[in-house]
Specification:
With 445 residues, the chain is mostly helical.
Length: 445
């Protein structure tokens, strides 16, 4: 299989960026894991909640990426700049509303979803959520701005910013979680982990906005205010963004419900699930990078009305991602337990995590058809179809089958993961069938 230059040019910076995104989560989980099982369990639970609600404004990021990519393909830079401005302001408004609502209902929400967890886990979860809630507007700005730049073909700027803020997060995280005795800085534990990530996200949002105002090769926002909603541009963004966002909301809501199943299995299973997910982030770096590349490349080819090349590059990306992921999965099989031991000292958590990572290595054969194909279809604007498939896969298989395997058949946490693999297979099959026809190309901007 030949490696295409246009794919490498776009994907390599994304891959480096994804490595640092992965390191952010992995290092936080590792450091929290050495505070105790309760801390890593609390972070895993709150991150499930955060990911769900972040999906609302992540939708704007997808919408902006696709619209900008197609406008760049159509050689309409002025329209791309207006799209960038409209998307950023909408993201600030949406994230602000979500932050306010969640702050009001944060305590009952934690108690409702995780009431069966032990008291220390729930108190840690409340504390971690209070800190991370205030980072939502910063996440919204960063996600949307990075999506705009990627849509314009600039993948290096998001990479550099992500590298920088992750270094800040790891440095601050270590100091704030463990403290520095000779400087009389106290250990803040889980509060330190939350504070470090909050500071890093704030800095990242400030830097990316400076980049947009100063201007890149194609994108430059002259000023945000006075601001006037352009309903035509907003409609283009939301027509793509809302179905993509609903797909993520459906997906993350399902994961949250699955998390409720996992909470009933005990602290060891909660921790193993959180650590297993953290380790799979490492394995998935090439796959996630190629997903981002698929959205941008397919969007630009569709913007140029080159449907044949859009389909060709998407199929290539699926094959390339599969080769990369399977090779990585094989490498991780013999070191699964050792990796788990970097997060925790609990023998039971290490054993369970090892089982999950080994099973995941086999399932990676079908990962790309489920995720890279989906990303490419979004690039073409076919977000309603990916939303429907996400609903079917999540609620019929991850939740329905997951409950049967994990609870009824008593497979425990492994049953949850097996149901997830079956969901990948079903959605991948549905996306493959979609790509064979012409309906996926009917929703361009």
């Amino acid at each position: 299989m030949l490696i295409r230059k246009n794919v490498l040019k776009l994907a390599v910076p994304m891959m480096v960026e994804q490595i640092f995104v992965m390191l952010l989560g992995v290092c936080n989980t590792m450091m929290a894991g050495h505070i105790g099982e309760e801390a890593v369990s609390a972070i895993g639970m709150v991150d499930s909640l955060n990911t769900l609600f972040i999906s609302f404004f992540a939708a704007l990021s997808v919408g902006a990426t696709v619209v900008v990519a197609q406008q760049v393909g159509q050689e309409k830079p002025k329209m791309a700049n207006e799209t960038a401005k409209q998307a950023i302001v909408s993201g600030i408004i949406v994230s602000g509303v979500i932050t306010l609502l969640l702050w009001i209902f944060r305590v009952p929400l934690i108690n409702f979803l995780y009431g069966s967890a032990v008291e220390l886990v729930r108190s840690n979860a409340k504390l971690y959520m209070e800190f991370t809630l205030f980072t939502y507007p910063f996440i919204a700005i960063s996600q949307i701005a990075n999506g705009i730049l990627r849509g314009a073909g600039d993948t290096k700027t998001p990479m550099y910013i992500t590298m920088f803020i992750n270094i800040i997060n790891i440095f601050l995280g270590y100091i704030l979680i463990y403290g520095i005795k000779f400087l009389y800085m106290p250990s803040l534990g889980i509060a330190g982990a939350a504070l470090a990530i909050a500071i890093a996200r704030m800095i990242g949002a400030i830097i990316i906005m400076i980049v947009l105002f100063r201007g890149s090769k194609i994108i430059k926002i002259k000023k945000l205010f006075p601001f006037k909603f352009d309903m035509k541009v907003q409609k283009s963004i939301f027509n793509i963004g809302i179905p993509a966002g609903m797909e993520q909301v459906i997906f993350q809501a399902g994961k949250l419900l699955v998390q409720v199943f996992i909470v009933t299995m005990g602290t060891a299973s909660i921790a193993a699930n959180a650590i297993g997910m953290s380790i799979t982030q490492i394995i998935n770096v090439p796959g996630n990078s190629l997903c981002l590349a698929a959205t941008t490349l397919v969007g630009q080819y569709v913007g140029r009305n080159n449907v044949k090349e859009a389909k060709s590059i998407l199929i290539y990306l699926v094959k390339f991602a599969t080769v990369c992921l399977v090779c990585l999965g094989i490498l991780f099989v013999p070191i699964a337990e050792w990796l788990a031991s970097l997060y925790t000292n609990s023998p039971e958590v290490i054993r369970l995590t090892g089982i999950l990572i080994k099973s995941n290595s086999v399932a990676l054969l079908v990962w790309a058809t489920s995720f890279v194909l989906s990303a490419g279809l979004k690039g073409a604007g076919d977000t309603r179809y990916t939303m429907v498939t996400a609903f079917v896969g999540m609620w019929a298989f991850r939740i329905g089958l997951g409950y049967v395997l994990a609870i009824v058949l008593k497979m425990g946490i492994l049953g949850i993961w097996v149901a997830m693999y079956i969901d990948w297979l079903v959605r991948g099959t549905m996306y493959s069938l979609r790509l064979r026809g012409n309906k996926w190309i009917m929703h361009r901007v």
